[in-house]
Amino acid sequence: MLPGMETELSRRLGVEHAIFGFTPFPAVAAAISRAGGFGVLGAVRYGAGDELARGLDWMEAHTGGRPYGLDVVMPAKKVGGVSEADVEAMIPDGHRTWVEDLLAKYGVPELAEGDRAGWRITGWMEEVARSQVDVALQYPIRLLANALGSPPADVVERAHARGILVAALAGSARHARHHQEAGIDIVVAQGYEAGGHTGEIATMVLTPEIVRAVDPLPVLAAGGIGSGEQVAAGLALGAQGIWLGSVWLTTTEAELPSRALTEKLLAAGSGDTVRSRALTGKPARQLRTEWTDAWEDPAGPGPLPMPLQGLLVADAVSRIQKYETPELLGSPVGQIVGRMDEERSVADVLDDLTRGFERAITRLNRIAGRE
Amino acid sequence: MLPGMETELSRRLGVEHAIFGFTPFPAVAAAISRAGGFGVLGAVRYGAGDELARGLDWMEAHTGGRPYGLDVVMPAKKVGGVSEADVEAMIPDGHRTWVEDLLAKYGVPELAEGDRAGWRITGWMEEVARSQVDVALQYPIRLLANALGSPPADVVERAHARGILVAALAGSARHARHHQEAGIDIVVAQGYEAGGHTGEIATMVLTPEIVRAVDPLPVLAAGGIGSGEQVAAGLALGAQGIWLGSVWLTTTEAELPSRALTEKLLAAGSGDTVRSRALTGKPARQLRTEWTDAWEDPAGPGPLPMPLQGLLVADAVSRIQKYETPELLGSPVGQIVGRMDEERSVADVLDDLTRGFERAITRLNRIAGRE
Fold first, then answer.
1. How confident is the model at residue B83, as a pLDDT?
2. With 60 as the cut, is the pLDDT of residue B264 above it?
């Protein structure tokens, strides 16, 4: 049996360890839940509801009845009836030409018919996210997380009516209080060092600041965490659990689009990431590549705002992934990538986190003169 | 009696708590040592050796025989006989004019004769730092820390011959290994969120990375730490002690150059700092002000490299401090400034850190099922 890591929140959700694993891969999410953590499946790479339903059916068949959650990207502000085609039409031609020229420079081939959008971001469109939520609420998920902003009031209400807890990511105490006013149950404090969308306040400062700001709401610490000692640190900061995303990318269950990308992640150091607007239009930490450098170049057009940038680059990113263009190939990932230096199973990662946590507690007790 | 916080390193140095307090103010450094921590006096604002000697005489008279240390800024590379005047001559006239115009725009008065350089950085000149070390080695200091790069080999040797431990700050594992090869005894892992010179890797990731890189050398965690729960987090990450700088700025013993600056620090939030080259030429975290914004402005000349920038702005910073120009008034400080919201004595801060540490350990033991 693994050593315990129990908080009020982990007991409430019925999991052994207060470890929340966010991942776009159902096989990883299910393995996290089976190993005693709480798997959270990212919905953003699914299309509308029916496609997500297949993913959730799979989760039901593979989590062995253990609790799990879903992460959607749902804007609180209604933009009312804006379709993907409407957004596509807002992208300047100059940006499209610049992207094509960049791909040509690196010799990235075109996609074949039917290959389109291995990299998908349509989950960010409000109508897609809404149809995902409609589907998700028909499944026995225990948590609905919103990755960007507070979820809309009616969604919070419908989730609560089904006994589903609602979480939202925050990069500042102000965001966290806004979430609290929106009626959510859990705040994920996402530090500067995290992969994906981040603010500028580091986990060490952000976590206790948000814990104090939204007390008594439970807070999960996110950003820079990939070992048991870091789990202990995050919990020491007052969190009721740890939210990890990056570490699962190099698990054997992960389904990365390219072997070359796995190798790149395994080789990268903590200094090889950058907070860039290249992928989504908002600052998101990812591997630094010649792709992110090109978007920083003052001579280039620079990134468009969300959601335009994501639509602009969707095909380009798919092409780079499919043809494994080494200079451009990247992924959202946090500074913890420096520690991700071997492929392991999800169960081994969980085991390592809980055992490392135990060792850290023993060491702390010695320092405090208690053991 | 305060609860304990003992590591191998704190025992070796003969202090009760593994809390290392860096400060430019002798009254603060002495109070830290008297309260059971380890005070480290920053030498950079002193001039050559004789001026520093007065500071160290004062320390001897006020530390009550408790151990303390000194922090110098000594480049490892010899630049050979370069004087302050030589460096002054390398500053372009365009930069001087731009600074004068900026001060005029905000109506900052000239300094009176004799008021010069309340803000001093001459300690960064190699010959000044060397004369400081010559003086320091005649005092019973227990630690000599180098704030920028590895200390020169002969200095490490002379310090060791007197039983003085040598520490150096590092922002990456590569820097830390370089320090280790230079024969130092302690690495201070200075995270992105720290005040003053920082790299881009956050404390959560940097600390364990450096602990692993230089094992078995002891590592101090620095950056973002100002509460007992953050002390527990830093120690959980494998550090043998915590290095704090920012939190002492708003202690009652601190001798800030301006009351308005104290008020500004007390009012600032964690998002009110910026990593800027405006003060020294190297990226240093400080309050974000219209001064730092002006140096970021692409229409301006941008900062010069170290040590030119520090010399260029020394008088300007003194004038801003003396006349308390609200828009421009700033200070090096870390993201923890958001938590610095009341003036307290050094002893109260230490008390708060050790009691908060105890509470964090108790909570962690409960999570681990040990209490």
1. 72
2. yes
Would the CB atoms of B202 and A192 count as touching at under 8 Å?
yes
CB A169, CB A145: distance < 8 Å: yes
Listed residue (A322, A321, A344, A341) closest to A331, CA to CA: A321
Task: Judge if A108 and A9 occupy the same domain.
Answer: no
B115 and B226 together in one domain: no
Q: Which of A1, A204, A333, A335 to mutate to test the interface with B (most CBs of B within 10 A)?
A: A204
Collapsing DSSP to helix, strand or coil, B45 comes out as: coil
User: What residue type is assigned to position A317 of the chain?
Assistant: V
Q: B353 vs chain A: nearest CA distance in angstroms?
A: 13
| A147 lies in the same domain as A15 | yes
Q: How far apart are CA B346 and CA B32, in angstroms?
A: 6
Same domain, A335 and A352: no
Q: Which residues of B fall within a CB distance of 8 Å from A232?
A: 233, 236, 364
Element (H or E) spanning A72, and its range?
A: strand A68-72
Going by C-alpha positions, the residue among A142, A148, A169 that lies closest to residue A66 is A142
Considering the domain architecture, whether residues A49 and A155 belong to the same structural domain is answered as: yes
User: Is A338 in the B-facing interface, judged by CB distances under 8 Å?
Assistant: yes
Q: Are residues B164 and B217 in the same domain?
A: yes
A305 and A348 assigned to the same domain: no
CATH number where A35 lies: 3.20.20.70
Contact check, Cβ <8 Å, A270/B173: yes
In a domain, A263, yes or no: no
User: Could you give the C-alpha distances from B366 to A42, A75, A208, B369, in angstroms and in order?
Assistant: 31, 38, 18, 5
Q: Is residue B368 part of a domain?
A: no
Could you give the CA distance from residue B218 to residue B89 in angstroms, rounded to a whole number? 42
Neighbours of A101 (CB within 10 A): 10
Give residue A111's identity as a one-letter amino acid code: L
Q: What is the pLDDT of residues B296-305, one digit of tens each?
A: 999 999 999 9
pLDDT range class, residue B250, cuts 50, 70, 90: very high
Predicted complex ipTM: 0.95
Interface test with A, best of B205, B240, B274, B363 (most A CBs within 10 A): B205
Q: How many domains does chain A have?
A: 2
Residue range A95-141, pLDDT digits in tens: 999 999 999 999 999 988 766 555 555 556 677 888 899 999 999 99
Q: Which of B339, B367, B370, B371 to mutate to test the interface with A (most CBs of A within 10 A)?
A: B367
Cβ partners under 8 Å of residue A225, min gap 6: A203, A231, A233, A234, A242, A243, A244, A247, A336, B204
Chain-chain contact of A204 with B206 (C-beta, under 8 angstroms): no
Judge if A309 and A189 occupy the same domain: no
Contact A224 B230 (CB under 8 A): no
Contacts of A203 in chain B (CB under 8 A): 202, 204
Residue B42 belongs to what domain range?
1-80+125-254
Contact B224 A234 (CB under 8 A): no
